[in-house]
Input
Amino acid sequence: METLIEGLIADFHERSLPTFTRRRVSLPLLPNKIDTVIGMRRTGKTWFLFQVMADLLAQGQSRESILYVNLEDERLLPMQASDLQQISEIYYRRYPGMHEKLCWFFFDEVQNIPGWERFVRRLLDTGRMRLCVTGSSSRLLSREIATSLRGRSLATEMFPFSFAECLDHQGIGIEPDLRPGAKKRALLANRFHAYLDQGGFPEVQGIDNDHRIRILQDYLDVVILRDLVERYQIAGTAALRYLIRHLVNSAGSLFSVNKFYNDLKSQGIAVSKNTLHDYLQYLSDAYLFFQVPIHAGSERSRLVNPRKVYAIDTGLARACSRSLNPDRGRLLENLVFLELRRKHATIEYYKTRSGREVDFLVTDRSGR
Output
């Protein structure tokens, strides 16, 4: 194991960082806090780490002060928590001058190693390094990465490409303060319609329609089989799959567990309401769907009223929908939600006294 770790460290410092599309996200990078990058699978968390490393290098950090380790590397498995200590020991033995300097350690897919939490907390306590970790698997959902660190971390959420990031990926520059000309406006309109249908998962950008749909459908299958069925030991998946199909085809609509329960019952699918509530939470924890409650003064009103549910990506929703003629208004609403969600953790919808609905209500920390 020691020889392997030393080789991985040497290889990282010899290789150039891969080319990446810049994400419009940044890490807090605060002292005495571990940065965690969380989100659904395949949203680009690893490539974002390379962006952070490139920025550190551009700011004058030496390559030796930065270490990246992919703990999903099959050569490291099975690795134990006691083996993790060798990473820092070998690193400092290789670069003894870094003992008194600030170092940056990046651990990708950290959940693969049992007991990783104690290791990274112990590194943080040395006071001479900054740490960033990512992870998403059936063993530990990305949201739980931050929870496992018991208040010693700050989480940064990673979503599929926004429309602006898609334009960056395609090399289409825009000046935010200047109105584009007719030719550029036509190009942007064309790219926006394509983005609405294709979504923003990095891997599917620029590939043909059939392969894109298959890849996105595979993403959904992985979430179902590994992040849900395997993790929660779900025996019968009929109700779960029916729920997912329903949500995919009605993203942005009001969803009532009671109504959906009665629908399943009429079709002879046996499942309890509590189980459906659990499934909905599982899907939220896996970042596949987001629940938006009604804005109300009492917690009871928030609980008893239907919630609106939005998908992580309009392209994923399109690829997994049975409808040949999608409701583009719903897709656009889903897209607006995602843009708001990138900036605000809490979003609600609102109903006026006359029964009219306001799709999104965002309040700041002062409650305004």
